[in-house]
Write a structure and sequence with these properties.
0% strand
């Protein structure tokens, strides 16, 4: 019996936050502020919207 690989990777909180920041910057640069959304940022970072909200309480954060 082989070990099952998890479908996700657990990154360190600071690394995950940095990844989300970089994804946000990429979306803003390519889509503009009007078309950047939580879903777009999460798709770029390859995470769920719930995970983004786990690290950031809102837009201002």
């Amino acid at each position: 019996m082989s070990a099952k690989q998890p479908s996700f990777t657990r990154e360190q909180p600071d690394d995950r936050r940095q990844s989300l920041i970089e994804s946000c910057a990429h979306c803003l640069a390519t889509r503009g502020i009007g078309k950047t959304s939580v879903r777009a940022i999460c798709a770029q970072a390859d995470v769920t919207p719930g995970l983004l909200r786990h690290y950031y309480s809102g837009v201002d954060a």
